[in-house]
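Deliverable D4.2, example record:
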Amino acid sequence: MADILVVGSLAYDEVQTPFEHRREVLGGAASYFSLAACLYSPVRVVGVVGDDFREDDIDRFRRRDIDVRGIERRRGRSFHWFGRYAYDMSTAETLNTDLGVFDGWCPELAPEHREVPFVFLANIHPAIQLNVLDQVRTPTLVALDTMNYWIEHERAGLEKVIARADVVTLNEAEARQLCVTFSIIRAARKILDMGPRALVVKRGEHGAMLFMRDERGDGGGQSPSPSVFWCPAYPLEKVQDPTGAGDSFAGGFVGSLASSGALDADALRRAVVHGTVCASFAVESFSVDGVEAASADGIARRYRALRSLVGIGAETLAEVAPPGR
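Output generated by the structure prediction step:
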């Protein structure tokens, strides 16, 4: 079991769905990630908050044995985000973003943070992600997330970060935007050619796809097709708030790898399933309440349920096998 460092936002969200409207609820990428990842391994958070950030919310991390010494408090207003979902609950329409003290923040890592082996760079400015990478010593694994805004406005810096990452997580639209293609397979090939060994494409209610670079090559000029693994989403009757699903996924994904210490293809596939399970808990409640309420037993039950969704037993396979000629 290894420690995990997450660098990202701690925020207050206002979330509006067709069914409910919540204000001033705890959010931010680092919040969701930490509460998911701590189910697997110790987590250390690096972020910044303002005067308005409630100490009770910091205590929510402390109660889960999440190291909060890297959270810097500054005078001013914390990061606030206001988003609205339509009935399909798939994509948020951002109505307002107030960066507050997050604007212009660039962390200086403490000595103990520089040695943490597993690093997750949440959705922040690529220049900050690069700055963090310059400070960490010899990480075992670096995973990063990003968004369409950075792809459009900070592409050069983002490509530098991607080249230094081991795993990149994007949603489908972001992967297509980054690689200027409709094809997810082609986009995966291009992203893996930038340097990372694995790409996770998050597909919301349709689960997640893992692409891994094939190191064998084919002797030609074109890179070989990446190997692909797909995990369906955990079936839920009710989705309350999709905010933070991707960051909770990342928490389960990186947490699983840090817990096992393995980084081979099978470990990456298992990590995708764990990430999918954590995301399923996150969307069941508003704010971080769902992933915060998750337990090791609950994770294990949903992990087994997901395996059964795609597993085919030998007897079942024989029953449906096509007849011989």
